[in-house]
Specification:
The chain is an alpha/beta fold. It is built from seven helices and 15 strands. Strand 11 and strand 12 form a beta hairpin. 30% of the residues are buried.
């Protein structure tokens, strides 16, 4: 049987407990379904179990990240005969710790990230890795305690640097909730038959390419890249791409594509160039599956971009 999971992430005192409390008090949600509430973080706000439906909600606490295991979760589900699971997640734990521990019959129905606007910019500056982790998979990001003085655009850009699909809501001190309606066009025209990607936009293009692969079939693209090779590539092929940093120096990795040189003349390995190529989505032994193969049309040697490492922000 499929068990729906509602995952609530965010940092301490960001409003997770209050939202879950109100959700479980709502008769439209609490329809008699046996619900397991996994609490992985205890803040100043406590749950008022008296306001929950009688015998409908069962709370279990997981205090340590190493205790978050598939066996533990399965045991709790059996004990409480859970038909649905809500998770108040610890903001300092990696999301993947929960995803890795999920039983096979668990399905994420919704993932909402709650953020205290009054401390968000400080968190983003000093704890960037945790912000990246939480924003990257969230379906909805709620900025609580929002005030106009913060400026929606600054918050919006940080979110969009990590996720182009997450919905954003700004909730003001008076309880008013405003949907983010800032238009966010791509900085290149992928609708055109041929387009160029500026050096500063490589990371955004790489991510959009991965999320919307078939949008780029038969398009011609021009971008700056470094050419690399490994033993898995047959003759006439190189990798073309750039290093990308998502949140910090430790996660920098080369992110590129298989590039075919029909004429047989290849650029020097580890050289930089302005590549013009036609995109073909097809099976490649390098990928081991279908993926983007760039058919080189022209390469112009150039200096490496500054900065050399591409970012999303």
């Amino acid at each position: 049987m499929e068990i729906p999971v509602y995952l609530f992430t965010g940092f301490l005192e960001a409003g997770k407990t209050k939202f879950i409390q109100e959700t479980l008090e709502d008769p439209r949600f609490t329809d008699g379904t046996s619900t397991l509430l996994l609490v992985c973080e205890e803040g100043e706000t406590e749950y008022d179990e008296k306001r929950f439906p009688a015998d409908g909600v069962h709370i279990a606490f997981i205090e340590n990240e190493e205790d978050l295991t598939e066996e533990k979760i399965k045991s709790l589900c059996v004990t409480y005969q859970a038909e649905r699971v809500l998770v108040e997640y610890n903001g300092m734990w990696k999301n993947n710790s929960f995803f890795s521990a999920m039983p096979k019959d668990f399905v994420i129905y919704q993932e909402i990230c709650f953020v205290d606007s009054t401390t968000f910019l400080m968190y983003n500056q000093n704890m960037r890795a945790q912000v990246v982790d939480k924003f990257s998979t969230a379906e909805l990001i709620v900025f609580n305690r929002f005030m106009d003085k913060y400026g929606k655009m600054e918050f919006h850009k940080i979110v969009r640097g990590l996720s182009r699909s997450a919905n954003i809501i700004y909730e003001y001190m008076n309880g008013e909730a405003v949907q983010d309606d800032i238009e966010d066009p791509l900085p290149f025209d992928k609708e055109a038959d041929a387009f160029a990607v500026q050096d500063a936009d490589y990371a955004l293009w790489y991510r959009d390419f991965g999320e919307n692969l078939m949008d780029y079939q038969d398009k011609t693209v021009t971008f700056t890249c470094i050419f690399l090779r490994d033993d898995s590539m047959p003759a006439g092929y190189l990798a073309a791409g750039r290093p990308i940093m998502t949140c910090c120096v430790d996660d920098i990795q080369f992110s590129g594509f298989v590039c075919h040189f029909p004429g047989g003349e290849l650029p020097a390995e580890q050289s930089w160039g302005k590549l013009k190529a036609k995109i073909d989505i097809r099976f490649s032994e390098v990928y081991g599956q279908e993926g983007p193969v760039l058919e080189c049309l022209e390469v112009t040697p150039c200096e490496k971009p500054e900065p050399e490492v591409a970012t999303f922000y």
